[in-house]
TrEMBL record:
Organism encoding this protein: Sporosarcina newyorkensis
Boundaries of every ABC transporter domain copy: 5-237
Protein name (Swiss-Prot/TrEMBL): Iron/zinc/copper transport system ATP-binding protein
PANTHER family documented for this protein: IRON TRANSPORT SYSTEM ATP-BINDING PROTEIN HI_0361-RELATED, METAL TRANSPORT SYSTEM ATP-BINDING PROTEIN TM_0124-RELATED
Transport keyword on record: yes
């Protein structure tokens, strides 16, 4: 059973400006969680701070009773495509094989079983035919599928994806959300920084809604309400055909 994740009082500042302020929430196993908020709300910053990828002013993250550092091998992270150097000369199958390194170790050569598992992960995202293609030759949606396959290769329990649906084709988006649902059904905890509000109810079970501060966190039907969204986005919202005033 995957341990719950608990975030307590995370704050992050850049050059003295607080961009994430005192955010706390918790989720149990089998959760597919959307992280929502307007541009500049601190969504990606929060995710990176949770993972220890950037400095935070204060706060902690626990996976059960353990810290992020203690559970690093059980965590898979897919960054924004814009933050990846796609010119790096590596083929698809080797990109996915990198996902096995946290468990096998950087200094040990991958075994036949590791390579077979990497190919199985490629098959799961429908990219096995591109195994020998340079990663730079793929479309945006194809690249995103490959990086999801790399995350799957880690055999992690906790998945963090930063804007995985930006700039990709519809078929790739459908493949990705289907896999994320399967991870949730398998008992994993999945966080997704997301921006398309029209798909929130269809994609997620739970939400973290922020605008530098936490607006609300919990089940979609609780969080995705007009009052919360108006507060987070500072503009009118339409829910079930009714206009919400500021």
């Amino acid at each position: 059973m995957v341990d719950p994740i608990t975030v307590e009082h995370i704050s992050v500042s850049y050059d003295g400006n607080e961009v994430v302020k005192d955010i706390s929430f918790s989720f149990k196993a089998s959760s597919l969680i959307g992280v929502l908020g307007p541009n500049g709300a601190g969504k990606s910053t929060l995710m990176k701070a949770m993972l220890g990828l950037i400095h935070k002013d204060c706060g902690s993250v626990k996976l059960g009773s353990k810290s992020i550092d203690e559970m690093r091998k059980q965590i898979a992270y897919v960054p924004q495509r814009s933050n990846i150097d796609w010119s790096f000369p590596i083929v698809v199958k080797d990109t996915v094989l990198l996902g096995t390194y946290p468990k096998v170790g950087l200094l040990r050569r991958p075994k036949k079983a590791d390579k077979e598992w990497a190919m199985e992960c490629l098959k799961q995202v429908g990219m096995e035919e591109f195994a020998n293609r340079q990663i730079s030759e793929l479309s945006g949606g194809q690249q995103q599928r490959v990086f999801l396959a790399r995350a799957l290769a880690q055999k992690a329990d906790y998945f963090f994806l930063d804007e995985p649906f930006v700039g990709i084709d519809v078929s790739s988006e459908e493949v990705i959300i289907d896999i994320l649902r399967k991870l949730k059904e398998a008992g994993k905890i999945v966080f997704v920084v997301h921006h398309d509000l029209s798909k929130v109810k269809n994609y997620f079970d739970d939400l973290v809604l922020i605008n530098k501060e936490l607006i609300d966190a919990g089940p979609v039907n609780k969080v995705f309400q007009a009052e919360n969204m108006t507060k987070a986005y500072n503009r009118q919202f339409m829910f079930d055909g009714l206009e919400v005033s500021m």
